[in-house]
Amino acid sequence: MSKASLHWQYALAKSELRICAKLRRNLSRAMTNYNKAKAAYVRCTTGQKPLRKRQADFTTWVCGIPCGVVIETCQPSRSENWGRPDNREPDQPEEVEFALLSQDGYEAVWLERKMDDDDRRQVEAECFYHRGFDCV
Is the pLDDT of residue 71 over 70? Predict the structure, then answer.
């Protein structure tokens, strides 16, 4: 949608909310429409991507806060111990990428910034356990 049409929808939702507040009817529905129109308009003007709900692979606690975890990639460590000793490749380290979700299912970047090393190790171990790998 264009910026002008989103602005128009935002203005209509704002006036609908004002009227419903005066009549004291359908205020909840009007507030929902207003919030959706405002969010769409703000995303359009600031260039933000719309929030997307995701399904967590498992739930855990980080810094005492319950959250969901989506496993992006999970590779256990690999060792290439074949051939002559001077031709061996170094061991590949384990690799885990994950995203933390709020309880509503939206990405919680603020919680990832709040994580310390112990929390990160715990979530990585849970990722390996969830995928069925016997490491960490």
Answer: yes
